[in-house]
């Protein structure tokens, strides 16, 4: 088998979710493995932070993050799984200690909290559940 046209692009979880919703809502019903994969993937994605994202919030967040010279892969990882701590940013951004100051890391966290307020709410809910009584 030969690849005639090489189309290589990375999709965000939001884009995958929207595409799968279109497949699910189409009049043409799919059977077998495609239906199962579509159902299971939709169920998973709807229970992650991507279920609360909008195309506008992602677009505005990307514009705000453009000042930090993050590469496409790092931006995709940040959008797919928005970090809520400085440690998570260090794990996502390669050589973050050299590329970002502590103030810049805090600015990124503020930007993410502004554009994706649901992640801050989820974190506070998790902290309340883990607190010993």
TrEMBL record:
Keyword Membrane among record annotations: yes
Membrane topology: Peripheral membrane protein
Keywords per UniProt: Cell membrane, DNA-directed RNA polymerase, Membrane, Nucleus, Transcription
Domain RNA polymerase Rpb4/RPC9 core: start-end pairs: 1-117
Pfam annotation, one family: RNA_pol_Rpb4
Subcellular location: Cell membrane; Nucleus
SMART domains in UniProt: RPOL4c
InterPro entries: HRDC-like_sf (IPR010997), RNA_pol_Rpb4/RPC9_core (IPR006590), Rpb4/RPC9 (IPR005574), Rpb4/RPC9_sf (IPR038324), RPC9 (IPR038846)
GO CC annotation, single: plasma membrane
Gene Ontology biological process terms, A to Z: transcription initiation at RNA polymerase III promoter
Keyword field contains Membrane: yes
GO molecular function, one term: nucleotide binding
Role this protein plays: DNA-dependent RNA polymerase catalyzes the transcription of DNA into RNA using the four ribonucleoside triphosphates as substrates. Specific peripheric component of RNA polymerase III (Pol III) which synthesizes small non-coding RNAs including 5S rRNA, snRNAs, tRNAs and miRNAs from at least 500 distinct genomic loci. With POLR3H/RPC8 forms a mobile stalk that protrudes from Pol III core and functions primarily in transcription initiation. Pol III plays a key role in sensing and limiting infection by intracellular bacteria and DNA viruses.
PANTHER family listed in its UniProt record: CALCITONIN GENE-RELATED PEPTIDE-RECEPTOR COMPONENT PROTEIN, DNA-DIRECTED RNA POLYMERASE III SUBUNIT RPC9
Family to which this protein belongs: Belongs to the eukaryotic RPC9 RNA polymerase subunit family.
Subunit relationships: Component of the RNA polymerase III complex consisting of 17 subunits: a ten-subunit horseshoe-shaped catalytic core composed of POLR3A/RPC1, POLR3B/RPC2, POLR1C/RPAC1, POLR1D/RPAC2, POLR3K/RPC10, POLR2E/RPABC1, POLR2F/RPABC2, POLR2H/RPABC3, POLR2K/RPABC4 and POLR2L/RPABC5; a mobile stalk composed of two subunits POLR3H/RPC8 and CRCP/RPC9, protruding from the core and functioning primarily in transcription initiation; and additional subunits homologous to general transcription factors of the RNA polymerase II machinery, POLR3C/RPC3-POLR3F/RPC6-POLR3G/RPC7 heterotrimer required for transcription initiation and POLR3D/RPC4-POLR3E/RPC5 heterodimer involved in both transcription initiation and termination.
Protein name, as recorded: DNA-directed RNA polymerase III subunit RPC9
Organism: Phyllotreta striolata
């Amino acid at each position: 088998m030969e690849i005639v046209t090489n189309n290589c692009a990375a999709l965000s979880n939001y884009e995958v979710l929207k595409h799968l919703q279109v497949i699910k809502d189409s009049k043409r019903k799919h059977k077998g493995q495609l239906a199962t994969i579509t159902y299971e993937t939709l169920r998973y994605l709807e229970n992650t932070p991507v279920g609360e994202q909008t195309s506008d919030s992602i677009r505005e967040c990307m514009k705000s993050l453009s000042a930090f010279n993050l590469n496409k892969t790092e931006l995709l990882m940040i959008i797919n799984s928005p970090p809520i701590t400085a440690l998570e940013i260090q794990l996502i951004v390669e050589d973050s200690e050299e590329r970002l100051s502590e103030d810049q890391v805090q600015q990124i966290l503020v930007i993410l909290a502004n554009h994706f307020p649901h992640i801050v709410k989820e974190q506070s809910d998790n902290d309340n559940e883990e607190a010993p009584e």
